[in-house]
Amino acid sequence: MFARPLIDSVDFARNGKELRGETGLAELSRLGDMLARTDGTLTYIVRGYREGDSDMLKVSLYGTCILRCQRCLGEMAYPVEIFSRLLLLPADRLDEVEENDEVDAIEATSQLDVLALIEEELLLGLPFAPRHPDGECAPTTNGLQQKANPFAVLAGLKK
How far, in Å, CA of 69 to CA of 76, rounded? Predict the structure, then answer.
C-alpha cells in the first residue's frame, strides 16, 4: 500500500505545482454507500496557481462510477468529469467568504491530504438520488414473488 499524497497547499499553489495520478474507488472509503461497485479507478489532476493575491487549487476528476439507480435499483454507469476551483484561506477567514458558485474555499494547510480532497469533491459531484434516464429502467423483482392482483376476481364478476 502506498502512502497517501500530502501537499503543503500554499506552497503548492504559489509555485504552480501539479500532481497527477489515479486512485482506486475502493480506496475512497466514504463513497462506499453511494457506489453499487467499488471496482474501477479515478484519474485526478491537482494544479496550484495564483489568481491575483489569492492562492488557488484546480481539481479535475475523470472516470466512471457504478451507482445504484434509485428508481429500479439496477446498476448504472455514471461518467465523472468534475472540475473545481478552490480558494485557499486560513481557517479564521473561511467565514468571510461569500457564497459563490464559481469558487469554493477550503482551509490552507501544510498537510493537505490529496485523496481526502478528491473524495470530498467526488462526493459533492455525484447525484444525491441517481436514476436512469426515463424509459431506461428495467423492471425487476429482485427475487420478490409477483402477487396476483386481488381485484382480478372482481373483474371476472363484472362480465
Answer: 6
Query: Could you tell me the residue ranges of all domains in the chain?
Result: 6-157
Residue 1 in 3-state DSSP? coil
- Where are the strands (E) in 25-91, listed by range? 35-37, 41-51, 54-68, 75-89
Average pLDDT over residues 131-158: 70
Short-list 56, 60, 63, CA closest to 14: 56
Q: How confident is the model at residue 139 (pLDDT cuts 50, 70, 90)?
A: low
What confidence tens digit (pLDDT) does each residue in 115-124 have? Answer: 999 999 999 9
Q: How far is CA 24 from CA 28, 132, 153, in A?
A: 7, 24, 55
Quote the Cα angle for 14-91-124, to 5°. 85
Q: Identify the pLDDT of residue 33.
A: 82
Distance CA 19, CA 17 (A): 7
Angle at 98 between CA 6 and CA 122, to 5 degrees: 40
Beta-carbon contacts of 115 under 8 Å, excluding residues fewer than 6 positions away, are 4, 5, 23, 27, 28
